[in-house]
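Title: Request for sanity check on FAD-binding protein prediction

Description:
We are preparing a figure and want to confirm that the structure record we downloaded matches what your pipeline produces today. Could someone re-run it with the sequence below and paste the raw structure tokens into this thread? We only need the token string, no images.
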Amino acid sequence: MSNQTTTRVLVVGAGPVGMVCALALNRRGIPVTVLESEPAPVRDQRAATIHPSTLEMLDALGVTEKIRAHSLLSSTYRFHDRPTGEVVAEFDLGRLKDEVRFPYVLQYEQYKLTAAIAEEYANESDFDVRFSHTLTGLTQTASGIEVEYTSPAGPERMAAAYVVGCDGGRSTVRKLAGIEFEGFTYPERFIKIATSFDLKTVKPDLAFRNYFSDPHEWANVFKVRGETPEGLWRVILPIGHDEDDATALSPARVEQRLQKFLPKTGSYDVEYRNVYPVNQRVAATFRQGRILLAGDSAHVNNPIGGMGMNGGIHDAVNLTEKLAKVIAGAAGDDLLDLYSRQRRHAAVNYVQAQTIANKRLLEERDPEVRRHNFDELRRTAGKFDTARAYMRRAALFDSLQDAAAIT
């Protein structure tokens, strides 16, 4: 790139996708700066499931072994019929042990992944992570991008070769680039409740990951390590249109929800609660000139199936492979259009399609359709070939293969 004054890439957002993107660029010898508006890694209770396909990518970066000891290892997930209490089907990734390197997921909260990368790698001039720095402007030039941001010292500027927006669903990068965010917002909101009480003492047939179908109130239930050896159970439930956030978050209403889900003697110890809107949206393009999008900046989806963070990390790995070639002069920058085509295809045809289908499965109200769905799940889980195909798709292996075939 003869006319380029810098090869530095600016990554906006120090979440898991931004930090994996920065680490992958750094490993390819590209200087990188990360701007994060928050003062430190946010200890939010968001994504926590890292699928086998993503573990392979993180292993190539030297991360998987470092985080495994601090994670909950889970090979099975179960579908339950909430009204009857029946376990409808179980899928065991362990059955894929002869064909995938990591036949399990790691339950490892995204804020820990961010912190683990920052602590180990992000302290050098060529891997420069700046918290309390907020992007305010981008101006593309013939040879790079002029970046404006605010820091604790005031307004500042820097020059970058490319900017990668990993700054979430409300992405400033995407908005500054004028890229449309196409899709819809669900009319209902979700509530996520974390309790330190061991739900298995009340319902022993829980796996670490569970999906409860219910025509009136579906649920996702999964376990994470949290900050204690006992771990935390997270329960995600829908909230009706007529309930405001303050009511939903009140201790009495949270307790009522948990007791309705799993009645027990005494009250629940609640460590965390949050209400959030849920969107299914994909950016019209993941590239505009020297501006690129990855992760939630490029696509958002409901959390059923744990695909958002994983799809975002897949974006980051795909992008860094191509961006490194472009910066080295080994490929033209039209290779970045291929990144956009491949990863947008994966977002629309796999992450969006699968998460929308997952929600429909759990909330189905028609008794006949519910019976048909359950019979289909049982048949799928009961045979190795169909179970294998289901698990590979759910673990995003199919999305990677399909996207890679796009030229």
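Thanks, this matches our download. The two ends are 23 Å apart (CA to CA).
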